[in-house]
Write a structure and sequence with these properties.
The complex is a heterodimer.
Chain A (H helix, E strand, L loop, with lengths): L3 E5 L3 H9 L4 E4 L17 H13 L3 E6 L8 H14 L3 E4 L2 H10 L5 E3 L8 H11 L3 E3 L6 H9 L4 E8 L4 E6 L1 H6 L3 H4 L8 E6 L2 E6 L2 E7 L14 E3 L2 E3 L7 E3 L4 H6 L4 E4 L6 H19 L18 E2 L9
Parallel strand pairs in A: 1-2, 1-15, 2-3, 3-4, 4-5, 5-6, 6-7, 7-15, 14-16
Antiparallel strand pairs in A: 7-14, 9-10, 10-11, 12-13
Chain B lengths: L1 E4 L8 H11 L6 E4 L15 H10 L3 E5 L7 H8 L7 E4 L2 H6 L6 E3 L8 H10 L1 E5 L6 H14 L2 E15 L3 H5 L18 E4 L5 E6 L2 E9 L4 H7 L3 E4 L6 H12 L4 H11 L5 E2 L1 H4 L7 H6 L1
Parallel strand pairs in B: 1-2, 1-11, 2-3, 3-4, 4-5, 5-6, 6-7, 7-11, 10-12
Antiparallel strand pairs in B: 7-10, 8-9, 9-10
Helix pairs in contact in B: 1-2, 5-6, 6-8, 9-10
Classes of the chains: A alpha/beta, B alpha/beta.
Chain lengths: 327, 300
């Protein structure tokens, strides 16, 4: 079977572009704190979701709705309503991370397909099977801490479908297990659906250097005329002992295009592209490239080479934890 | 209100590890959670000493709980997790994998690295047999309040992070090994020289974080010294104190004095005397950011 390409859509226009470019599946979220890309100007209101899903279904594509932040105590109804509204809009599945929300989905909408978000960081077969037994989860998005052989071993031990990230932003920490951002800025992926948010970013020129600060912490310093990378916390430059370096991760993004054949033989069902904050033309181009890759694989032809390099952040990419030496 | 000692997050020598638990028997704490939380490669160095550490604590009337790993990926880690319940003490789940491997109907505790953000998750955990939950340190006081009310309804004890460097993130990658140009599989135990984690500074030399193998902690030591009365009002039943290499027994005694009614300002002074280099924070509970410290904000 052809591997499923799962594409991001931050706007209805991006959804239509992804579907037209050949996405088997699109994922998106409501324009509020219920999803992990809660950025200004992004995401779907209820009408847009219904229309977007209808458009995708008409062209044979599926739509997954991400409701993958952790509901705030006392305000769970906001998240519960999002699940109900996704179902009413015709979503093919919802992507959840919070156990309380999974229990809600299981109890209130037993015929709604549940996917386990990467934000739940389910990193071994035991816990994946547990989510399946407990909540009826049908697919898990694997955290970016696993190597290809480990993914293969997981697939040998579970009937739950696996979806893996192949392109775009790269979390260095186990997803959903990180509060670096709220420590420095007050806002986090788990609680607010944002990481290293732009309103806490400041750039300062001092002497010949340009400092990038997040929450008042200087985590990048470049020469005045060098490009200043966005100060994402885990990809900043820091000092420890005698060393000044990107101690956690370089400002790279993930590109596992060359690993697609290995991921296929590891039993992976779907390939996920990160980037709901990206433009529709970016999304369309990434989709076309990955669709060409999986179609080539299916036809027994070699992978197209270097097709994604141009689209990567700052040009630098990594295969991340898929190669064991990354750790 | 009770005091719980959390698992030691750092890699100490077997001797230092044992001394910590020998010393705790005489401190006024109610509960001790021990075992390996951060990295499975550290466990063999002190695994055989665990039963010996447990007995005197039990004899001294402390409840003893065994923690799971925070992130379970490898086969031997799954096996390790499977075997936790064989020790005959309650297990603290810090990765839901540990819950998956507990025999049905087993009572268990939930640690701060499980994402318990709301009533729905608390109810689900109760239905699975959870008896007590230490909430994630990231939660604001408003959430703690709601969760304590739900916990009371469910007969579940709610604990919060009381003192210590905050566990902010866990990764598949070992940063100590990376710092030394090694990979995790060939780390040569680069973390063993940093009993409280290795300071990570910003580009303008401001203390910010601490690295501890695959874990990233805050530079600041979170402290509930100025939050105690608010936490008591919400119904929090225990504070968690996280082991550190400087004056930990003293810290335990100091928090007991706080609970017993000592003036928070005096307690803050005592804490500063015990570990003069420690910067404190309580921003996750009441501040705009986790790193904030209410005493500074109040002074401004």
């Amino acid at each position: 079977m052809v591997m499923e390409i799962v594409c991001p859509a931050g706007t209805p226009a991006a959804l239509r572009a992804a579907v037209k470019a050949g996405a088997h599946t699109v994922y998106c979220g409501f324009a509020d704190e219920t999803n992990a890309r809660n950025f200004p100007g992004l995401n779907f209101d209820r009408d847009e979701m219904r229309e977007g899903i209808a458009f995708a279904h008409h062209r044979g594509s599926k739509v997954l709705v991400a409701i993958n932040t952790y509901p705030r105590a006392g305000d769970e109804a906001i998240w519960h309503n999002a699940i109900t509204d996704a179902k009413t809009a015709g979503a093919d599945a919802v992507i959840l991370a919070d156990p309380g929300l999974l229990a809600y989905g299981r109890d209130r909408h037993p015929d709604l397909r549940l996917h386990l978000s990467v934000q739940a960081a389910a990193a071994n077969a035991d816990i994946i099977n547990f989510y399946a037994d407990e909540f009826g989860v049908k697919r898990v998005v694997l955290p970016r801490v696993l190597s290809v052989p480990e993914i293969k071993a997981i697939n040998a031990e579970t009937k739950v479908e696996t979806e893996v990230f192949v392109f775009g932003g790269l979390c260095v920490m186990a997803e959903g297990r990180c509060s670096l951002s709220s420590y420095a800025t007050g806002e986090s992926p788990n609680m607010n659906g944002v990481c290293s948010p732009a309103e806490h970013v400041q750039y300062h020129e001092t002497g010949g250097a340009l400092d990038a600060k997040l929450g008042g912490y200087t985590i990048h310093r470049v020469g005045k005329n060098e490009p200043a990378p966005y100060p994402t916390l885990c990809k900043g430059r820091f000092k420890a002992q005698e060393l000044t370096a990107h101690l956690f991760e370089n400002p790279v993004s993930l590109n596992a295009e060359q690993l697609i054949p290995q991921l296929a033989s590891a039993g992976v069902t779907a390939l996920k592209i990160e980037g709901r904050q990206r433009s529709r033309s970016y999304v369309a181009q990434v989709v076309r490239n990955f669709r060409a890759a999986v179609d080539a694989l299916e036809a027994g032809q070699p992978m197209p080479k270097g097709m994604m390099a141009r689209l990567s952040e700052g040009g630098a990419t990594t295969a991340g934890a898929y190669k064991k030496t990354w750790r | 209100m009770e005091l719980t000692v959390g698992p030691n997050q750092f890699f100490w020598s077997a001797g230092d590890w044992s001394s910590l638990y020998q010393g705790l028997a005489a401190t006024p704490v109610d509960r001790v959670v021990l075992g390996e939380l951060v990295c499975s490669k550290r466990l063999p160095f002190y695994q055989k000493d665990i039963p010996e550490a447990i007995s005197p604590l039990v004899d001294a009337g402390k409840e003893v709980i065994l923690t799971s790993l925070a992130l379970v990926t490898l086969k031997r880690e799954r096996k390790m997790t499977d075997e936790l319940s064989e020790m005959g003490v309650m297990v603290e789940v810090n990765d839901l994998t540990a819950l998956a491997s507990l025999p049905a109907e087993t009572a268990f505790a939930v640690g701060p690295l499980v994402n318990v953000y709301n009533e729905g998750t608390l109810r689900w955990l109760a239905s699975r047999g959870a008896k007590r939950v230490c909430l994630p340190p990231e939660l604001p006081l408003s959430s703690v309040k709601v969760l304590c009310a739900t916990g009371a309804e469910l007969g579940m004890a709610i604990e919060v992070w009381g003192h210590g460097r905050l566990p902010l993130a866990i990764s598949g990658r070992c940063y100590h090994a990376r710092l030394h140009g090694r990979s995790k599989d060939n780390c040569q135990f680069a973390c063993e020289d940093d009993p409280d984690g290795l300071d990570v500074l910003t580009m303008d030399d401001k203390p910010f974080l601490a690295m501890n193998g695959v874990q990233t902690l805050s530079d600041t030591y979170a402290s509930t010294v100025f939050q105690l009365s608010a936490l008591r009002d919400t119904g929090v039943s225990a504070l968690r104190l996280s082991p550190q290499s400087t004056g930990f027994a003293n810290i335990c005694t100091t928090y007991r004095a706080l609970i017993d009614g000592a003036d928070p300002l005096d307690i803050a002074t005592r804490l500063a005397e015990i570990d003069p280099s420690a910067r404190l924070s309580d921003g996750f509970l009441t501040g705009a950011r986790g790193v904030d410290w209410s005493a500074t904000t109040a002074a401004e």
